[in-house]
Amino acid sequence: MGLSERKEREKLELKNLILDAARKMLLAHGQDGLSIRKIADEIEYSPATIYLYFADKDAILHELMEMGFGVMNEYMKDSFKEKDPIKRIHSIGHAYILFGLENKDWYELMFNSDKPMKHIEKCCEDWDQGMAMFAFLTQTCKEAIEQLKIENVEDHILALHLWSSVHGLVNLSLTERLEIVQRNSSHELIGKTLDAIIKTIFRK
Fold first, then answer.
1. 39-46: which pairs have CB atoms within 8 A and are 24 or more residues apart?
2. Comparing C-alpha atoms, which of 153, 158, 112 is closest to residue 137?
């Protein structure tokens, strides 16, 4: 291995070390417990070294958000394989909810925090994985509309409807608002609500 290749490998290893420390800190203490200085202390490097790889904390959070979508994709495996669009929509909704309930800190970062989005605005980057996920849902809605011959419904509007519905359910559960509606059975309530949404929209 040449000198330049070794340097590139070392740079990648250090970047991954920074992100791994940030990820562990995020999952253990949330976003408020994450800072450049704390990451530097954890990996025993100076804050200046971290700034060679990331412009600021927002840039780290943005990359962590992308990692979060990688975790979410694992929950979506069955959805990606489902052939029937109606069943696929239900599977997407179930996977999205399960991911949100089981990964609160990832979910907050990916869907409720303005920090990664501020980084996107500053650096003119795309929300690549988020948009890919939404495009997958939109294409599924398009197939469902065509299969059932539903008139006067736009696929991306239907996708937004479905996304906002499951997003609301996750947030209501994470903030324990659903406990007010039905104590000690919020998961069951979420499942029934998702079923009702699908049946109401598609009459199936």
1. 43/17, 43/18, 45/14
2. 158
**Residue-wise pLDDT tens digits, 80-120:** 999 999 999 999 999 999 999 999 888 888 888 766 666 66
pLDDT in tens, 119-177: 666 655 555 777 888 999 999 999 999 999 998 999 999 999 999 999 999 999 988 88
Side chain identity, residue 68: G
> What residue ranges define each of the domains in the chain, with the CATH number in brackets?
1-54 (1.10.10.60), 57-202 (1.10.357.10)
Tokens of 56: 């600021």
Quote the CA–CA distance of 20 and 25 in Å, as a whole number.
9
Instruction: Provide the token pair at 203.
Output: 């009459």
